[in-house]
Design brief:
Blueprint (H helix, E strand, L loop, with lengths): L18 E6 L2 H21 L7 H23 L3 E6 L3 E6 L6 E5 L3 E10 L1 H4 L3 E5 L3 E5 L3 E8 L4 E5 L3 H17 L1 H4 L1
Parallel strand pairs: 7-9
Antiparallel strand pairs: 1-2, 2-3, 3-4, 5-8, 6-7, 8-9
Helix pairs in contact: 1-2
């Protein structure tokens, strides 16, 4: 767990209008580089076609290298970072630099929010957007702290994000404000 001194607030202070947090994984850049290298190899094979075995093996090698490179490049860049936003109505998760994949969960669907001090990609089968029958759905971009949401339909949603403890406090405050009614929360 990381220390976040800027997030401490008094018990009487209301939660912020909008809470934002993010997490990044620099290791993903290395995998993206490997994907770019695979694409470069495929392009180089296409340009320097000195294969003596015929056209079919060459086309298979070029398509294989470029396809694997594209999958690695875009698959890793989509999960190099995650941005989480909690406002008065919902929690929104956006992945990568263009924000896709994206998930928006209305607060009305959240039953409880918990802090997980240590989530490991290995627990979920790796980085990315994950689903495990016994654990639910997750966006895992790195090892570390996470927000775990219990949803009204019985499912769970986990997202690794810096300062997850603060996010959980904000979500709990919002849920408490919703349950006490508009007179106490507004």
């Amino acid at each position: 767990m990381r220390h976040h001194p800027h997030t401490a607030r008094g018990a009487d202070e209301p939660p912020p209008e909008v809470w934002t947090g993010h997490a990044t994984n620099r290791m993903q850049w290395l995998l993206a580089l490997v994907g770019a290298a695979c694409m470069a190899l495929g392009i180089q094979l296409a340009v320097d076609s000195s294969w003596t075995n015929g056209l079919t093996p060459l086309v298979m090698a070029v398509v294989g290298c470029v396809g694997a490179g594209l999958l690695m490049l875009f698959g890793t860049l989509a999960f190099v970072q995650v941005a989480v936003r909690v406002d008065k109505d919902s929690l929104e998760v956006r992945c990568g630099h263009i924000g896709v994949p994206r998930r928006r969960i209305p607060l009305s669907q959240i039953v409880a929010a918990d802090f997980a001090p240590q989530v490991c990609p290995r627990q979920w089968g790796g980085w990315g957007y994950r689903w495990r029958p016994e654990k639910g759905t997750a966006v895992i971009v790195r090892r570390g702290e996470a927000v775990v949401l219990n949803l009204g339909d019985g499912h769970k949603f986990t997202v690794t994000v810096d300062d997850a403890e603060s996010a959980v406090r904000v979500i709990r405050d919002r849920l408490r404000m919703r349950s006490t009614g508009p007179a106490a929360g507004v």
